[in-house]
Amino acid sequence: VPEDGTSPNAQRIEQDPAVELENLRQQLLDAQEGYLRSKAEVDNIRKRTEVEVANARKFALEGFVRDILTVRDSLEMAQDADQHSEGENPSADLSEGLILILKQLDMIFERFQVEMVEAVRGDKLDPDRHQAMSIEETDELPPNAISRVVQKGYLLNNRLLRPAMVIVAKTPEKSSEEA
């Protein structure tokens, strides 16, 4: 109850109807703005949630793929060792088996959208896809070019899973005798 002792309803009746109508219009506009803001916020939350769920599904196998990459690396090393064995009679069965296993892994990788990161001797080092493990002095390649690939890199759904481990070329320093 106001200080003058009149009830709130009595005050409203005494107000000018035009002022009261303008107040009600302003309240309606405020309520509409609040509604639109709330609706936009709900839409943004829904969209953000959809993206997060899609990413969770897309990258759910990331740990699995990381683990299986080491198996693939081991198989490739065994295949290389078998093919480069000198003086011994290389086992054709072992080599065939390794090739078959690598083909199966490649099919699995393709199905789950796992791609190899290209790292070719002579290519420029790409810090977003390659990790330099060491530097090698050479005149054969320009500086910051890939000299050797130590370990292949992989992408999962176009996101870097593991960078390619490479050795990078460096121009040899001239010794004091050559200067």
Features of this protein?
single chain; 179 residues; alpha+beta; three-stranded antiparallel β-sheet; three-stranded mixed β-sheet; 4 helices
Structure characterization notes:
This protein has 179 residues and is α+β, with helices and mostly antiparallel strands. It contains 4 helices and 6 strands, in the order H-H-H-H-E-E-E-E-E-E. Helix 3 (62-83) runs antiparallel to helix 4 (92-111). The longest helix has 42 residues, at 17-58. The model has no long low-confidence stretch (mean pLDDT 84).
Mind sketching the topology for me?
Elements: H1 8-14, H2 17-58, H3 62-83, H4 92-111, E1 114-117, E2 130-137, E3 146-151, E4 153-156, E5 159-162, E6 164-170
Parallel strand pairs: 2-6
Antiparallel strand pairs: 1-4, 3-6, 4-5
Helix pairs in contact: 3-4
Order of helices and strands: HHHHEEEEEE
Strand residues, percent: 15-25%
For the terminal residues, how far apart are their CA atoms? 100 Å
> What does the average pLDDT come to?
84
- Based on CA atoms alone, the radius of gyration comes out at 34 Å
Q: What's the overall geometry?
A: elongated
Task: Look at the helices and sheets and give the structural class.
Answer: alpha+beta
Q: Care to count the β-strands?
A: 6
Helicity, in percent? 40-55%
- Adjacency order of strands in the biggest sheet: 1-4-5
Main β sheet profile: 3 strands, antiparallel
Tell me the number of helical segments per DSSP (H or I, 4 or more residues long): 4
- Extract low-pLDDT stretches: none
